[in-house]
Structure formats: structure tokens, C-alpha cells
Amino acid sequence: MNEAPVLALRGVEKSYRSGDHDVLPVLREAELTLHAGEIVALVAPSGTGKSTLLHLAGLLDTPDDGDIVICGQSTRGMAEAGRTALRRDQIGFVYQFHHLLGEFSARENVMLPQMIAGRPKAQAKAEAERLLGMFGLSHRMEHLPGKLSGGEQQRVAIARALANAPALLLADEPTGNLDARTADAVFTELLDAVRQKGLAALVATHNEELLPRMDRVVTLRDGILVPR
Ligand SMILES: Nc1ncnc2c1ncn2[C@@H]1O[C@H](COP(=O)(O)OP(=O)(O)OP(=O)(O)O)[C@@H](O)[C@H]1O
């Protein structure tokens, strides 16, 4: 029995144009396979293409060549509507900065992606409360993001990323904006949630201390993904 990988990058290439003639190659034939339940760290020096790779894996950008396969579905040549649906249904994102909507409460922030996906309000509310409870935030549900601590804001952002029960979690420095102790606590909760739900996760980080807690570490060398 061989289940389709949750994420597969196949020969992914990406360059950026800077000026009329200059081309900056960032990814060259990048290959990566992530199965359900696998947590992979992406560690590479600044400017080598980690965010580029996460954007491509999250279908926020398209490669120049190669394919990105999500839950067995090739996205090569896929129309934007299909990419959007796949992104909404299968992928959760956590960034270094929480990007919560400041005028909405913690609970509403976790409800919104569910309602965009068509879930009835009462169900979205119940799921938001369950998730926020899981992250120890039952007493903070009515708070606006600006009234929460950095660690609490990031926990709400993680709850939001999990709200539509994605198969894949993509995280770009998810604890990079927190002090060491809070980072450790929030990362532990993130890993617990990912493991409990059996998601696949790709986590870009500069924090070496977090690496032993993930299953594998990959790095980018001259635009190619290699084990580290
Ligand atoms: N939209 C763009 N247009 C032109 N060049 C870009 C664009 N986005 C990224 N780059 C360049 O591509 C390279 C890779 O950028 P990327 O943000 O993926 O690196 P990174 O490894 O995530 O860096 P960091 O760790 O500093 O966040 C960098 O040299 C960057 O300047």
C-alpha cells in the first residue's frame, strides 16, 4: 500500500528577473517528497530560496518548469480556480508574523477561512473554539489580536492555519518573532497538533534547536534540495 505523498516537488525550477536582462536562478530541479505524518525542516542561509520554495509549494506562485503535486494532484498547467481550491482545502500557512486581521477577534480570525470555504457559521464557531482551546486560548477568544501577547497571536495564527483541516502545513519561521522560551513552547504545541492530526509539514527555520524535533532536515545548495 503506497499512499500518494501529500507534497511532491518534481524538477521545480524558478528564476527571478531583475532588470531587463539579469536572471537570478533560485531553484534548479528541486525535488522533495513529503508523506502524511512527516515533519521536514528546511534550513538554508538567508536569500537561498526558502520562501520561494514555500510559496511554490503553497501554490502562491508558479514554477518556471517542473510540477508541484498536492495530495496526488498535479498542478502543472492547472487553472487558477483549481489552484485556489487546492490551496484552501489542503494547505495551511503559518508565517513569522501572525498576519491576523486586527479588527476581528481571535475566534473570528479562526472562523473566517472556514466560512470562506463554505462551512456554516455555527460549525465554524465550534471548530474555532475547539482549536483555540487546544492552544490554551479559551479565555482569549473575544480578544482582538492587538490585545494578545506575541505567543498568543502566533497560537491563534496556527489555529487558523489548521481550521480547514489541511493535509499540508507550510511554516516560514513560525516562531522567529518570539523570545526563545515562548518560541519553544509555541513550537512544541505546533508539532503536537501536526503529529496528532497526521499532517505533513514543511518548516523553514534558522533555529537549530528545533531541528532534532523534526523528522528530517533538508537544505538548499545551489538551488537544489539536499538532505542535511
Ligand atoms: N519577487 C522577486 N523578484 C526578484 N527577486 C526575488 C523575488 N523574490 C525573491 N527574490 C530573490 O530570490 C532569492 C531567494 O529569496 P527568498 O526570499 O526565497 O530567500 P530566503 O531563503 O527565504 O531568504 P530569508 O531567509 O532571508 O527569508 C533572493 O536573492 C531574493 O532577493
UniProtKB/TrEMBL annotation:
One of its GO terms (molecular function) is ATP hydrolysis activity. GO terms for cellular component: membrane protein complex; plasma membrane. Keywords: ATP-binding, Cell inner membrane, Cell membrane, Lipoprotein, Membrane, Nucleotide-binding, Transport. The keyword Cell inner membrane applies. InterPro entries: AAA+_ATPase, ABC_transporter-like_ATP-bd, ABC_transporter-like_CS, ABC_transpr_LolD-like, MacB-like_ATP-bd, P-loop_NTPase. It holds the Pfam family ABC_tran. Residues 7-226 form the ABC transporter domain. GO terms for biological process: lipoprotein localization to outer membrane; protein localization to outer membrane. The keyword Nucleotide-binding applies. Belongs to the ABC transporter superfamily. Macrolide exporter (TC 3.A.1.122) family. This is Lipoprotein-releasing system ATP-binding protein LolD. It comes from Acetobacter peroxydans. The gene is lolD.
